[in-house]
Amino acid sequence: GDSVTQMEGPVTLSEEAFLTINCTYTATGYPSLFWYVQYPGEGLQLLLKATKADDKGSNKGFEATYRKETTSFHLEKGSVQVSDSAVYFCALSDDAGGTSYGKLTFGQGTILTVHP
Amino acid sequence: SAVISQKPSRDICQRGTSLTIQCQVDSQVTMMFWYRQQPGQSLTLIATANQGSEATYESGFVIDKFPISRPNLTFSTLTVSNMSPEDSSIYLCSAGGKRGAGELFFGEGSRLTVL
Q1: Which of A70, B80, B105, B113 has its CA 20 to 30 A from that of A54?
Q2: What is the pLDDT of residue B27?
């Protein structure tokens, strides 16, 4: 079945450092890929997405490129801020055949803490 | 986008009791989903709530334990029945309406602690 694997955390960085959170996936079809973020005390929010190979999703300075050849969707940001401290989830939606209508499979989440 | 409200936001429950979580969406959505997030773990899909038909449960989850209602296109409930400490989790409601887009919107979750 489908699965998503994220790099183990937690990740602790200083402000303005470069961030990479690795994400790889296994899927039977051609999935859409997502990064969700959960800020302290808040619900999950979509950060960015990519729906086909070589697409790059971007938002709030974060980027991730859909790499079909390496089945990866790594999250990057060039200069993190304290306000980026949150839990980040990689996820996929495999709508092959229309049987997984909107259903998401999540990675285990990565806790990011950014210090001033 | 959709705004999703859940209640209760948190509760402390006694073993053997049941609790119903309500989920309200501010717009009509085709699909609603219930996820569980156990402490320190990722989100696991419990079931898909379909309007006008029975919910579709994932492997490891059964209707007797997690009965779901979906009376209309903006509302759903999840009941956690006969609770045990292992049911202590955050339960999240989510909604998505666009076939194939995959994007889901989430409520803030209901944090249940079972003693």
Answers
A1: B105
A2: 87
A109 to chain B, any CB pair closer than 8 A? The answer is yes
First-last CA distance in chain A: 41
CB contact under 8 A, B102 and A51: yes
Report the candidate in A56, A57, A64, A70 with the shortest Cα–Cα distance to residue A24: A70
CA dist., res. A67 & res. B18, Å (int):
45
Digit-coded pLDDT (tens) for A23-72 = 999 988 788 899 999 998 888 889 999 988 999 999 999 999 999 999 99
Range from A17-31, B1-15, B40-54, B59-73 carrying the lowest mean pLDDT: B40-54
Report d(CA A91, CA B32) in Å as an integer: 17
A44/B92 CB distance under 8 A: yes
> Would an 8 Å CB–CB cutoff place A60 in contact with chain B?
no
Candidates B42, B56, B91, partner chain A, best to mutate (most A CBs within 10 A): B42
Question: Which amino acid does the sequence have at B36?
Answer: R
* Average pLDDT over every residue of B42-67: 91
Nearest CA to CA, how far is A81 from chain B (Å)? 23
The residue of chain B with its CA nearest to that of A42 is B108
